[in-house]
TrEMBL record:
One of its GO terms (biological process) is IMP metabolic process. The gene is ADSSL1. Keywords: Cytoplasm, GTP-binding, Ligase, Magnesium, Metal-binding, Nucleotide-binding, Purine biosynthesis. Substrate binds at D42, V330, T331, T332, G333, R334, K335, R336. It comes from Anabas testudineus (Climbing perch). This is Adenylosuccinate synthetase isozyme 1.
Length: 456
């Protein structure tokens, strides 16, 4: 099936131009396809990536860490990925962890080994890790927990982090005390000194933090040797991939637009840019090479942890969506909060990301409802507001304006093409498409690969 990868005619730009000739400017190289979450995460990005990864040559992660959780079902087997790109399942493709990702090495190897037991073969040979990626240490994870406890004590509320050390690792990166993959693989004596300094820095802030430095360094030295064969200069690798033979390159976003450090519902966000800009900075590729940007949205809305959620349903509807949708976090095991589809946030995500198409997932969860509501606008003091509020106090106060649709009351899980869907479900999908102004390319009606109806 055609997945509309836009790869133009390629010439190798590495050849020097003949003297005095005007250099050709039209060869931008291969385009990458980016898959991003359009809500608060857990939209089913893994499934869309998995669909595209069957034809991809390279699948990349560009930001976040093992705070992401993507489940992919292949031949009835469920694989859980947190740090590994979900494309690792495809034996013909290469998976790349880019410089924008923060890597917890024990987590990476544990994840690989666990999936290997389920039947994932040869993953270490298909994985490339950027030498510029920052490392998450065990003490970053401990500090993450300590900070949450502190926030709870001071403000009576926490952020609801996954306690995977992601925030503290990005903090170390921003304060220029972080350690990268290239440091670990360089002079180990120098790495050890810097590691000890970083530990002391955190211990001065958190006196209760205990770290067995020698034991940690011993383990890190072992991880370094296991990691070494996978490490490459990510910028050079991506440049070669973009400007060599035609290739299908896929970027798998983690988290989602409303969790973006700049554009999300701050402070209840993650610590990286999970919008389209993060693909450029997290891999070292120019905007010129971004091709299709696919947004993934659920047919309703969910959110994990605390933070504003205008369309949340704290009632029987919310409970029904939670139980029918099995809405439990892959990474945290926490129950997800559920509510009606909020098109204000999906349109906002589109403003930032410029989606070329949308994948709408979990439509089948709505099969039993008598009526279905869709949030189309926010009102403040009775007046429609044209934007998505940055201020959380304001977002908590908005009143949602809904559009109501009759339910289709039919099982859609066996639908495999557009015409298999009931007219009322088609109507719901078309409304969403028209309201956002982006075509819906896939509609998901179940867990497995086959349950994604391709529209064009």
């Amino acid at each position: 099936m055609s997945l509309s990868w836009s790869a133009k005619d390629h010439k190798n730009t590495n050849q020097p131009a003949a003297t005095g000739q005007k250099r050709s400017r039209n060869d931008a190289g291969n385009k990458v396809t980016v898959v991003l979450g359009a809500q608060w995460g857990d939209e089913g990005k893994g499934k869309v990536v998995d669909l595209l990864a069957t034809e991809a040559d390279i699948v990349c992660r560009c930001q976040g860490g093992n705070n992401a959780g993507h489940t992919v079902v292949v031949d009835g087997k469920e694989y859980d990925f947190h740090l590994l790109p979900s494309g690792i399942i495809n034996p013909k493709s290469t998976s790349l962890i880019g410089n924008g990702v923060v890597i917890h090495l024990p987590g990476l190897f544990e994840e690989g080994d666990k999936n290997e037991k389920k039947g994932l073969k040869g993953w270490e040979k298909r994985l490339i890790v950027s030498d510029r990626a920052h490392l998450v240490f065990d003490f970053h994870q401990v500090v993450d927990g300590l900070q949450e406890t502190e926030r709870q004590a001071q403000e009576g509320k926490n952020i609801g982090t996954t306690k995977k050390g992601i925030g503290p690792a990005y903090s170390s990166k921003a304060s220029r005390t972080g350690l990268r993959v290239c440091d670990l693989l360089g002079d180990f004596k120098d790495f050890s000194t810097r590691f000890k300094n970083l530990v002391h820095q955190y211990q001065s802030m958190y006196p209760s933090l205990t770290v067995d430095v020698e034991d940690q360094l011993k383990k890190l030295k072992e991880y370094a040797e296991r990691l070494r064969p996978m490490v490459r200069d990510g910028v050079y690798y991506m440049y070669e991939a973009l400007h060599g033979a035609p290739k299908k390159i896929l970027v798998e976003g983690a988290n989602a637009a409303l969790l973006d450090i700049d554009f999300g519902t701050y402070p209840f966000v993650t610590s990286s840019n999970c919008t389209v800009g993060g693909a450029c900075t997290g891999l070292g590729i120019p905007p010129l090479n971004i091709g299709d940007v696919f947004g993934v949205a659920k047919a309703y809305t969910t959110r994990v942890g605390i933070g504003a959620f205008p369309t949340e349903q704290l009632n029987a509807i919310g409970e029904l969506l939670q139980t029918r949708g099995h809405e439990v976090g892959v990474t945290t095991g926490r129950k997800r909060r559920c509510g009606w589809l909020d098109l204000v946030i999906v349109r906002y995500a589109h403003m930032i990301n410029g989606f070329t198409a949308i994948a709408l997932t979990k439509l089948d969860i709505l099969d039993v409802l008598d009526e279905i509501k869709v949030g189309v606008a926010y009102k403040l003091n009775g007046k429609r507001i044209p934007h998505f509020p940055a201020n959380m106090d304001i977002l908590h106060k908005v009143e949602v304006e809904y559009e109501t649709f009759p339910g289709w009351k039919t099982d859609t899980s066996a639908a495999r093409k557009w015409n298999d869907l009931p007219a009322k479900a088609q109507n719901y999908i078309r409304f969403i498409e028209n309201h956002i102004g982006v075509p819906i390319k896939w509609v998901g009606v179940g867990k497995s690969r086959e349950c994604m109806i391709q529209m064009f």
